Amino acid sequence: VWLDRNADAVQGQAEPGMEGVVVHLYDAGPDAMCDTGDEVWLAEATTDADGLYLFDLLLSGNYCVWADPATSEPDTYLSPGSANPHGPIALDPPSHGQVLSQGLLP
What we know:
By secondary structure, this protein is mostly beta strands. The protein contains no helices and seven strands.
């Protein structure tokens, strides 16, 4: 999770990671899509000093991830520039090191 200062949905060198942002992990639900209302909450993590977080030991499936803007810097919101910023992320078979990048705009 980073502060997307220029709203291009790409983390640049001058766009720092955001520490302390709570990130929620959801199962995508029967339709395997995000933002459709059938997601099931699974876990949460908090970003480190570099804006990184980890959900481990995930099984095959479709997942959605939300960075909670209420836990980020004041007056920021999710960057609309990213395509499908919440996912879905398909893990089949389970993989290590899957990355989802989410920018927050000032």
